[in-house]
């Protein structure tokens, strides 16, 4: 079936001519490094996605200043409002992140801290899944709990299983070519996206 291109379509009952609902999933990156392993995996998500799914790369969280109440009191930074608008335009979020010191990367936590100050909160009630990517044997597994804790504080709807931890990522991802070289890894991520799309459709229906 040929892929139909649209600019903005919501998972709220609006349909294509063929009756297929487009799901838009926003990708939030937890790494700022241009050639990071996790960013490379996230940039391949569209090629792994099912038909009628658009993977949307959200603005970089690195554009936000460190959270400071004084800055907020002077006016919400443009990067925060732009991120909020982008999140509101998608049906679900996919967080693709490394693990820093057994925990959530600072840029990801800072972005969520800023977004949590908005009313209404763009994260609340949004389906979300987590992919961690790391060169070590655990694949960033220790970051999942802290990321989930922060997401839960925002009232997000977390798909807890199956978990995705891409371990030994240097042997599975070519950051220079921008590709996933392991077919097994690509197949697993493809299967996870199919499950996440179903999860998101059920929640948004």
Tags for this entry?
alpha/beta, disordered N terminus, 36% helix, 6-stranded parallel β-sheet, 205 residues, 7 helices, two-stranded antiparallel ribbon
Write the layout of secondary structure elements.
Layout: E1 23-29, H1 37-43, H2 45-48, E2 53-57, H3 69-74, H4 78-88, E3 92-97, H5 106-115, E4 127-133, H6 141-153, E5 157-158, E6 164-166, E7 173-174, E8 179-180, H7 183-204
Parallel strand pairs: 1-2, 1-3, 3-4, 4-5, 4-6
Antiparallel strand pairs: 7-8
Notes on the protein architecture:
The protein has 7 helices and 8 strands; from the N terminus they run βααβααβαβαββββα. Strands 1, 2, 3, 4, 5 and 6 form a 6-stranded parallel sheet that branches. The chain has a two-stranded antiparallel sheet with strand order 7-8. A hairpin with a 4-residue loop joins strand 7 and strand 8 (179-180). The protein is globular and about 50 Å long. It starts with 22 loop residues before the first strand and ends with a helix. 36% of the residues lie in helices and 17% in strands. The longest helix has 22 residues, at 183-204. The protein is of the alpha/beta class and 205 residues long.
């Amino acid at each position: 079936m040929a892929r139909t291109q649209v600019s903005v379509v919501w998972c709220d009952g609006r349909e294509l001519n063929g009756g297929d609902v487009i799901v838009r999933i926003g990708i939030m990156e937890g790494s700022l490094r241009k050639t990071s392993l996790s960013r490379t995996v996230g940039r391949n998500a569209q090629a792994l996605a099912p038909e009628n799914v658009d993977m949307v790369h959200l603005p970089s969280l690195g554009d936000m200043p460190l959270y400071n109440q004084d800055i907020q009191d002077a006016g919400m930074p443009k990067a925060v409002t732009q991120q909020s608008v982008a999140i509101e335009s998608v049906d679900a979020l996919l967080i693709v992140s490394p693990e820093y010191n057994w925990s959530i990367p600072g840029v990801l936590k800072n972005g969520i801290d800023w977004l949590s100050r908005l009313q209404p909160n763009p994260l609340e009630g949004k389906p979300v899944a987590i992919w961690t990517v790391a060169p070590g044997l655990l694949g960033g597994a220790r970051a999942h709990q802290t990321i989930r804790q922060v997401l839960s504080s925002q009232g997000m709807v977390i798909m807890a299983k199956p978990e995705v931890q891409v371990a030994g990522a240097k042997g599975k991802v070519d950051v220079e070519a921008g590709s996933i070289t392991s077919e097994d890894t690509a197949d697993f991520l493809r299967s996870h996206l199919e499950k996440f799309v179903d999860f998101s459709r059920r929640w948004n229906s």
